[in-house]
Amino acid sequence: MRAERAQAGSASPDAAEGRIFHTSFPARPQAVREALRAAVARFARLMSADEAGTFELILAEILNNVVEHSYQDADEGTVTLSIVQDRRGLSCSISDDGVPLPEDCLRRVLPDDPGRPQPGNLPEGGFGWFLIHDLAEELGYQRDANRNLLAFRLPLCPQKENA
């Protein structure tokens, strides 16, 4: 797994290092676990335990879905994860060169919709997307040049400076 550090605008390199996370890794379960562990560790001090759990859950659901479904029978594939922390929270993007994401995954049913499915009645794989839609904000997907790009935001409560 290769992790890269980037600098943001006029911020000092030390400040940028803590705010930006970028890595590319092979589409394999062990590589997902390593990337997930590194991403959560990078931002854990910026969030509450509940927020860290939500962040880990969303990323795990998305990354594991990519590995399990996007590459199907392919022997190789690369997943790229980028995360930027700003005053509104964490902006995350995941890209891969696997098969397109099925449209059903992107359909959101609002909490007050009488047709909203019960989590226990969802098909295999449907519960993960159900959670992602409920926990993430600004979820978006685009297929471009044979690559999938999925992005979302996780809002974070402001942390005290000396906490």
From TrEMBL:
Q: Which UniProt keywords apply?
A: Kinase, Serine/threonine-protein kinase, Transferase
Statement: the UniProt record of this protein carries the keyword Kinase: yes
**Record-annotated Histidine kinase/HSP90-like ATPase domain positions:** 25-153
Please provide, alphabetically and separated by semicolons, the GO molecular function terms listed in this UniProt record.
protein serine/threonine kinase activity
A Pfam family per the record: HATPase_c_2
Q: Which domain of life is it from?
A: Bacteria
Instruction: List, alphabetically, the SUPFAM superfamilies matched.
Output: ATPase domain of HSP90 chaperone/DNA topoisomerase II/histidine kinase
The family database entries (PANTHER family) matched by this protein are listed as: ANTI-SIGMA-F FACTOR RSBW (PTHR35526:SF3), ANTI-SIGMA-F FACTOR RSBW-RELATED (PTHR35526)
What protein name does the entry list? Histidine kinase/HSP90-like ATPase domain-containing protein
Give the organism, scientific name.
Pseudothioclava arenosa
